[in-house]
């Protein structure tokens, strides 16, 4: 018998070792899920109680029975239904716009040759280093010149395109669309627009869907720019409506959390229906990138 030969691991020991790793993984994932979900649960608990209960020690961890009353106050205090409609319109337009326009710009940077392409793409990437707050004043002046102040398009149009989306789609299209495929399409007489819309965009649709969903969520949660450019209550978004629930100095935590929970519900419903497609799009982009 060779003295250097290793002793074979018994089968039961191998099975125990194989089962231990998934258990630790699932335990870690369970802890991460609890940590992620607890703020949402606490928001719901506070939205069913009042400010005194929310700040009491020890804190209450069970929901109360005051949610319907506070939700009614939310709808009575601010035009919350109209704010929800405005947010849906703005976020949908931003999501669809980013999915299509960023894919179009990414296709141009990845597959088309034109003077200054690399320089322009470098400028686009460098704009991601500029804080968004620095663009608020010139952006407001532009909206004022266009006469768009206190209109929904003032919130929608600036979000239709962004540097990260262009970079995302450029990288994805560059790694997905083969040059031979484009040459074959040109031989068949296809124009550049036809190549993009009929060949390139269907192939990168999962990545565009993920980008559009990110744009939807960002537009839904955006507060600073809508707060500056929107003045009329009938044009408020949900985030501005939640701010309007608060008095100048006094904050009713129960009322504010009730409004916040109502504003979060549409996003939760959205992720229930598109969560699987979101994960598939991210994983496909990760493996192809």
Automatic annotation (TrEMBL):
It is found in: Cell membrane. The chain crosses the membrane at residues 21-44, 83-108, 120-142, 148-169, 203-220, 253-274. The lineage of its organism: Bacteria, Bacillati, Actinomycetota, Actinomycetes, Micromonosporales. It is a multi-pass membrane protein. Keywords: Cell membrane, Membrane, Transmembrane, Transmembrane helix, Transport. PANTHER family: ABC TRANSPORTER PERMEASE PROTEIN MG189-RELATED, ABC TRANSPORTER PERMEASE PROTEIN MG189-RELATED-RELATED. The keyword Coiled coil does not apply. Pfam families: BPD_transp_1 (PF00528). This is Carbohydrate ABC transporter permease. Belongs to the binding-protein-dependent transport system permease family. Residues 84-274 form the ABC transmembrane type-1 domain. InterPro entries: MetI-like, MetI-like_sf. Gene3D superfamilies: MetI-like. CDD domains: TM_PBP2. Its main location: membrane.
């Amino acid at each position: 018998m060779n003295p250097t030969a290793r002793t074979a691991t018994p089968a039961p020991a191998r099975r125990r070792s194989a089962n231990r790793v998934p258990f630790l993984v699932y335990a870690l994932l369970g802890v991460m899920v609890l940590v992620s979900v607890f703020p949402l649960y606490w928001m719901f608990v506070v939205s069913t109680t009042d400010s005194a209960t929310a700040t009491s020690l020890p804190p209450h961890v069970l929901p109360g029975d005051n949610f319907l009353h506070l939700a009614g106050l939310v709808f009575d205090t601010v035009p919350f239904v109209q704010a929800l409609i405005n947010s849906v319109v703005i976020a949908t337009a931003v999501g669809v716009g980013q999915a299509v326009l960023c894919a179009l710009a990414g296709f141009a940077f990845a597959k088309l040759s034109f003077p200054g392409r690399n320089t322009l793409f470098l400028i686009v990437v460098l704009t991601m280093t500029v804080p968004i707050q620095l663009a608020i004043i010139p952006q407001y002046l532009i909206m004022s010149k266009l006469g768009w102040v206190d209109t929904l398009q003032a919130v929608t149009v600036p979000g239709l395109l962004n540097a990260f989306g262009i970079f995302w789609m450029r990288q994805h299209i560059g790694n997905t669309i083969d040059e031979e495929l484009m040459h074959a399409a040109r031989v068949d007489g296809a124009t550049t627009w036809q190549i993009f819309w009929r060949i390139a965009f269907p192939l990168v649709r999962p990545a565009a869907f993920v980008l559009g969903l990110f744009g939807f969520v960002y537009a839904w949660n955006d507060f600073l720019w809508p707060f500056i450019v929107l003045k009329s209550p009938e044009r408020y978004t949900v985030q501005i409506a939640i701010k309007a629930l608060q008095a100048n100095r006094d904050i009713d935590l129960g009322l504010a959390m009730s409004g916040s929970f109502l504003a979060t519900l549409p996003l939760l419903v959205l992720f229930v229906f598109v969560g699987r497609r979101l994960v598939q799009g991210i994983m496909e982009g990760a493996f192809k990138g």
